[in-house]
Amino acid sequence: xxxGAGVNIALACDIVLAARGxxxxxxxxxxxxxxxxxxxWFLPRLIGPARARALCMLAQPxxxxxxxxxxxxxxxxxxxxxxxxxxxxxxxxxGAATVGLALTKRALDAAYSNDLSTQxxxxxxxxxxxxxxxxYAEGVRAFFEKRPAxxxxx
Length: 154
Known about the structure:
Elements: H1 5-11, E1 17-19, E2 23-24, H2 39-47, H3 49-58, E3 62-63, H4 64-70, E4 75-77, H5 82-94, H6 98-110, H7 116-131, H8 134-144
């Protein structure tokens, strides 16, 4: 993984896979800079303020395994299996119910600033919206017919 900004751009992704041989470095302190590309926002939210401060101020590499343990990334994959695993994930998302996924992302993002009551109202509204889609109807049909759903993104 490239140092600094490359790491922070990866952290902006919904799901991050890393090769076992990768490391994550907030290298900015080595050259007299502060984090950019969202690093100061993502890091404390993903791993907590103490770990974020140490990574940013010490500029020490973090192994992929430790990044996974800390919740910085989703999963470590053997180096030679990284691309096949990423391609498999892309295939999964290409056939997914995209409206439901988009609503899920919006709900998860809102959870950082909402209280529980507000979040429950949002979830209710999103469930209503998702349940009106063709993909939801297909998902229910597929469940009862015991077959994989064929979502269309509608």
